[in-house]
Fold DMT family protein.
Amino acid sequence: MKALTTIGLLILSNSFMIIAWYGHLKFAELKWFSKLGIVAIILISWGIALFEYIFQVPANRMGFKENGGPFSLIQLKVIQEVITLVVFAIFTLLVFKTETFRLNHIISFLFLIGAVYFMFKK
């Protein structure tokens, strides 16, 4: 159960991270947002990123083996990176309609899945 909760929290965390890091590129299409300066955009992104940390910190604490969780520190990091890329891919396809995924992108994702497999191999 801790493993699924950890992964769920990491998915939520990374969803907010992707919006904070890349959402402003799409939000620029909104008239009121396009008039904002870089400082305002940074502050809005920080506000969104706060929610990333609200989910990331408990996920890592709960998931970390030394705190009674199922994952080593390295396993947590690899899981987090794969989740980041999956969430980013979904976000890109849904929000940025002009982006397309090519075969080399799919192959790189398969290698990441392989990385997770080997990370958990004893």
